[in-house]
């Protein structure tokens, strides 16, 4: 059984990775309903929280049905990160998570995210300050190292555990790799099987099929897996993995009706949370993934991403359901969605 401090996550939990511009409350609800055991907010700038920036504050929104849920923070200033953790704690999450993994330029070049992999003493001190500042469990998400010459995650894991973190999630790439190439789980396995380690170790990177989740569990012994890009537009990945681990058989992929229903629900939840205008704008990035493998979909996609009324969006979704009735779109390649282009903050670390 995997436990983060007092939080019982079950035998082999599936975690939804924190993804900027993706893992907001509407998307999290769909993932929760489809089997995600632990979820995180989009990662939040410590500077934004301290300044009461609206973009940062709204990311503190969490709901009871999402629990257990963590608020993830990133920043470069130790004292500001400590203050931000105290602010985040008041939103009453189940834990505070620190992002030491985000590789995108506009984060790392400001000394935050994966940049801390170049200054391990500062990373340790920042983590220690946050652990001491809050009563909640503190966890960390990071990468193997800054580059191939500094793949020091085994040492880093020991040092972070020694100052009190309750769990560690590791993405199997260096910062230099960004999202290129295959994730290397070898070092993740070394961390998990290090006799000094006693906290849960979660692996992240390229888990996009039930078979891969099982392989990573069996080969490397991780306590659970964190799923990011493979869940975008495909929240069913969680229940499919759980079913496969329990039975050894694959669930049938979602049908046209299920895909349209998910897109419709996502849009409706977004309207309830942020209003019609923001829901129309922010849900557009998901349609390509919800309707992956739909033949000749370009015209519908163009209409969805240019429509500016809720009535229009819902009407187009109804058209899609009718137009593709009887069409076999269930074949799913399980290839992870490409990292979207984000102006300021990046995808999961």
CATH class of the largest domain: Alpha Beta
CATH superfamily of the largest domain: Aldolase class I
Task: Note poorly predicted spans.
Answer: 332-346
H/E element sequence: EEEHEEHHEHEHHEHEHEHEHHHHHH
Structural class: alpha/beta
The strand count comes to: 11
Residue share in helix: 40-55%
Question: Brief description of this entry?
Answer:
With 349 residues, this protein is of the alpha/beta class. It is built from 15 helices and eleven strands.
Task: Tag the structure with descriptive keywords.
two-stranded antiparallel ribbon; alpha/beta; TIM Barrel; 2 domains; 40% helix; nine-stranded parallel sheet
How does this structure look, described?
- The protein is α/β, with parallel strands linked by helices and 349 residues long.
- 40% of the residues lie in helices and 12% in strands.
- The protein has 2 domains: 3-247, Aldolase class I (TIM Barrel, Alpha-Beta Barrel); 256-323, Non-ribosomal Peptide Synthetase Peptidyl Carrier Protein, Chain A.
- It has helices at 25-33, 46-50, 54-57, 78-89, 105-108, 120-133, 153-162, 186-192, 210-220, 237-247, 256-274, 276-283, 287-290, 298-306, 310-323, and strands at 3-4, 7-8, 14-16, 39-40, 44-45, 69-74, 95-100, 138-143, 167-171, 201-204, 224-227.
- The strands form 2 sheets. Strands 3, 4, 5, 6, 7, 8, 9, 10 and 11 form a 9-stranded parallel beta sheet that branches. Strands 1-2 form a two-stranded antiparallel ribbon.
- Helix 7 links the parallel strand 8 (138-143) and strand 9.
- The two termini are 25 Å apart.
- Residues 332-346 have low confidence and may be disordered.
């Amino acid at each position: 059984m995997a436990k983060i401090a007092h939080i019982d996550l079950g035998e082999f939990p599936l975690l939804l990775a924190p993804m900027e511009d993706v893992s907001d409350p509407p998307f999290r609800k769909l993932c929760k309903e489809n089997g995600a055991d632990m979820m995180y907010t989009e990662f939040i700038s410590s500077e934004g929280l301290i300044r009461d920036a609206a973009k940062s504050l709204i990311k503190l929104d969490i709901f009871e049905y999402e629990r257990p849920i963590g608020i993830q923070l990133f920043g470069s200033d130790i004292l500001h990160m400590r203050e931000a953790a105290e602010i985040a704690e008041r939103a009453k999450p189940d834990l505070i998570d620190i992002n030491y993994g985000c590789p995108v330029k506009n984060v790392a070049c400001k000394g935050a995210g994966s940049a801390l992999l170049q200054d391990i003493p500062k990373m340790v001190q920042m983590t220690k300050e946050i652990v001491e500042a809050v009563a909640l469990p503190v966890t960390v998400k990071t990468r193997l190292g800054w580059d191939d010459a500094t793949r020091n995650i085994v040492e880093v894991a020991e040092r972070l555990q020694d100052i009190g973190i309750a769990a560690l999630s590791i993405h199997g790439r260096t910062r230099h790799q960004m999202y290129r190439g295959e994730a290397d789980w070898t070092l993740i396995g070394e961390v998990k099987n290090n006799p000094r380690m006693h906290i849960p170790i979660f692996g992240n990177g390229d888990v996009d099929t039930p078979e891969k989740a099982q392989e990573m569990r069996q080969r490397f012994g991780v306590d659970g897996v964190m799923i990011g890009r493979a869940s975008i537009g495909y929240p069913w990945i969680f229940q499919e993995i759980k079913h496969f681990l329990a039975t050894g058989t694959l669930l049938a992929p979602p049908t046209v009706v299920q895909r349209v229903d998910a897109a419709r629900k996502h849009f409706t939840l977004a309207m309830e949370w942020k209003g019609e205008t923001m829901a129309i704008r922010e849900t557009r990035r998901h349609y390509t993934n919800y309707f992956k493998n739909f033949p000749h979909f370009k015209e519908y996609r163009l209409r969805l991403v240019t429509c500016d009324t809720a009535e229009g969006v819902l009407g187009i979704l109804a058209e899609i359901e009718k137009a593709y009735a009887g069409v076999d779109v269930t074949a799913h390649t399980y290839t992870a969605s490409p990292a979207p282009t984000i102006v300021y903050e990046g995808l999961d670390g």
